[in-house]
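#struct-help
A.M.: can someone run this one for me? Single chain, 205 residues.
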Amino acid sequence: MTIFAALAALPTALATFAGPSAGAPAPPPDPQTARVQLAALAVRPPSPTTGYSRDLFPHWSPAGASCDTREAVLRRDAIDIVTDASCRAINGTWYSPYDGATWTKASDIDIDHMVPLSEAWKSGADQWTTARRQQFANDLGSSQLWAVTDNVNQGKGDKDPGVWMPPLATFHCAYARSWIDVKSRWGLSVDPAEKSALEAALRSC
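D.P.: on it. Structure tokens below:
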């Protein structure tokens, strides 16, 4: 029986999943590979946000049984997570790499899209089908989805690295590599200021 099936079989009880350490998104390529990827990205001004809506990126898709993508990330990145019968995370321990904070309540955690949905729209996703945008918004196979401190994520908003980088400077290398990896995987462009900021962050690696 899968974990998802086991959860579905627990109508009222809480379930605890323990692990030796928290998980993380798929690691991005090394700095040298990231530099090659960045050099290959198209550089152009961002497209206007005309027509953009988060609804055009259906997110938190089902991820088995009653879980969705958000809950899947919370479970992936937690130590000793406690969930309810509907797969919603109640408690656990989460480390936010953006600011180095540790949290024990799921309500203190946001799931960040490394490349925000609006940013993706402005760099090529406006030409995608809704189905492709849904795949992007729920991409568990890359460095796209991160469990981070809620107010740090809200401060980031839809800003690119030319405007915003994580408060924890020691994470800038990994952040840049992850951003570049997502844009490379999905064929998205960068603007000149964004590219310059990413190049600077890679020099910190």
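A.M.: thanks! The chain is about 35% helix and 15% strand.
D.P.: also worth noting: The beta strands are 15-17, 78-83, 89-96, 101-105, 109-113, 145-149.
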